[in-house]
Model the fold of this input.
Amino acid sequence: HVIRREDYRAPDWMVPEIALDFDLDAAVTTVHAVLKVERNGSDAGPLRLDGDGLTPESVRVDGREAEYHMDGDTLVVPLDGAMHHVETVVRIAPERNTQLMGLYASGGNLCTQCEAEGFRRITFFPDRPDVLTRYRVRMEADKTRYPVLLSNGDPVASGDLDHGRHWAEWNDPFPKPCYLFALVAGDLAVNRGTFTTRSGREVQLGIWVREKDLAKTEHALEALKTSMAWDERVYGREYDLDVFNIVAVDDFNFGAMENKGLNIFNSRYILADPDTATDQDYDAIAGVVAHEYFHNWSGNRITCRDWFQLSLKEGFTVFRDQSFSADQGSAAVKRIEDVRALRAAQFPEDAGPLAHPIRPDSFIEISNFYTATIYNKGAEVIRMMATMLGPQKFRAATDLYFSRFDGTAATCEDFVRCMEEAGEIDLSQFRLWYSQAGTPRVTASLSHEQGSDRALLTLRQSVPATPGQPDKQPMVLPLKLKLFSETDGSAFGPEQLVLLSDLESEIAFEGVSERPVLSINRGFSAPVVIETDRSAADLAFLSAHDDDPFARYEAMQQLMLDTMIAGVLHGRTDHAPVIEAVANTLGDERLDAAFIAEAVLLPSENFVGDQMATVDPDAIHRVREALRRDLGRSLEGLWRQAYEASRADRFELTPAAKGARRLRTVSLGYINAGGAPDAAGLAFLQFEQADNMSDRQGALGVLANGSSDKRVAALDIFYNRYSDNGLVLDKWFSTQALSGRDDTLDQVEQLARHKDFTLANPNRARSLVGAFSVNQRAFHDASGRGYRFLADQLLALDKLNPQTAAKLLPPLGRWRRFDADRAEKMRAELERILATPGLSKDMFEQAERSLKG
Ligand code: ARG
Ligand code: ZN
Done:
């Protein structure tokens, strides 16, 4: 059943209020709901309440037993008046809820996940985001098993009952869509804090976890306070309730959820201490805590009219969390990381069968659209508007948006109109970013006649065809650019922002007395692919002299990419320019360690593959390893210097210390790649002496890639040390699944039979199956066994948790990019999935689109 954006209709009935009563128990929970419903317009039909697997035990209207019927899973109640109270009772079984949508059990506690359509698994309700309701929630449960009872909003009252039971009542004064409903019941400890808003409201903060994890919550609590202050300062947004609670659970389908006043998190985005969390984990925690907190305004106070508008809250909120994180450390390195993530996840999506615009036109299962396109490309689209408006007008535009749409369910169009009005800019053509899928390509070529004073830049754009969108219009592409002199490194004029809106355009630069070098798409000002005719020498020059750190990084990446692609296509390639550029970067004292570590890393095998008409995974692996070896060997002295210089006396979490650790492990990787005889010993020493997880996991990764006798020892030590810590065991699984060794596929098949492997926990499933399927060479083993393994796991997982299963399918959809033999094997697995009886609609949609799209 396909849902289309153009079919949107306002709801027939509104639900201004609901009273929910839960009799909580893991085996059987009884849900009693009283909905105050109001007719919306005169041609409203009967009241239709969504359900998913629910059977009504009783339906009453205005206190009397009512007529009703079921239309599939939907409860239909004929009503004649303008306002009624509709009362339903259902029973649900949280401990048998393996989908982890609705009310479910995790680690002995009970929690909820309702976005997008999980509330209908709890009670009958119009489960759509444009129905805004005031919630009163009463929970009753066994006091020993569930001493803590939390829901949205503010606590109202609580008390004890007979038979060891107790109750609590919560009230949320802000009308909200049902996807923001949450409750938690469990045996939880709390790390409390307070935050005073700038208008003087004292907010009680709480991070709730199991007792044993309490010591790992400080970083999340600090990140929350920092986020609250940041949103006041940067966007003028204040918090609006007296409490803000976060609960961490181990079984969670995604990262976290912004339920009003009661965020629920995957524990991997809360728990951290130096012994178990890497620097990346620390950063991700701060980023996700900020993201969910920022949703209070961009998502909750203003929500989405329908799920086609998802990017309205997600794209904007990702942009907000990216800006927040950029402010906490090196903005340049944060930008590099964000672009790398975009290229790793979103560009392939945009270039494959699952391509969709950031505001899709149709879907079968909305869960399949929580994608890198909606989130990350969505954030890039907001960023482009911010760039074009400039900081002051952008702030005026977001102020206008927040004040005009507060308390409503809005659309992407509403947001863009605020940008236009406050920004005094016409965004008619820019709106194509909301409707056209595909990554635009820009070719740039610069000409300069010798002896003249003028350079001419020719820009051409094209937007590739995507499924269902064969013909594209030219888009508005904001490109920051600058020209440099190769002779003395100076710039010809300041940076310019060019808006490329035609298919082709020419820009003249005056006062350019020699052939300049082009620096383009600086800061990655537009999420596009740039093709230039710049030589290896030009790129090497920019990698050493560009004054935009992103452009500098980019020039180096392009140089490395060109070098590897030449190797794959022609069998041989000249490593010298890359080696020289890396040496320059390593030796540049003005650069900080974090930047250096990013700049000297080779583009991933997947990324190289994404640039080729036909991916040759074995050749790419061989060529990339050869370049790594050469870099390691030729620059061994510099790597050792960097390795020693980034040694720390004591553990700190400052940006500088994190950068040093990153450079240290990157250097270790190169020393090892170069074949230094003491490399494995060095890695093992780092592994054993580490006083933090970044160093330890970094060393383990290096060892797991190699074949020294230290490899098995280190994996065993790591396993035994952390066998009771699920989040660290996930690292143990993924490190092995990502290994570049020849036997990785065998290892992964074995790990799937390991006693600690389970598909029931999404983090664990992703740590092995998800990690393996992005290991390009291992997954694309010519035998096709990698494909079969993935399909087997997906089919098994689909029975438990369709949402998480469907999210892991896309690697099979890359079949068009491989040789006929591999493509046929991949297709065969997709066909096998589609032919499986009882397939979920999540998996059906993903497999079908992957095959046909
Ligand atoms: N809104 C949540 C967030 O962005 C994610 C919810 C994911 N839901 C889903 N059905 N995939 O943080
Ligand atoms: Zn979000």
User: Anything to note?
Assistant: DSSP finds 26 helices and 31 strands in the chain. The longest strand covers residues 165-176.
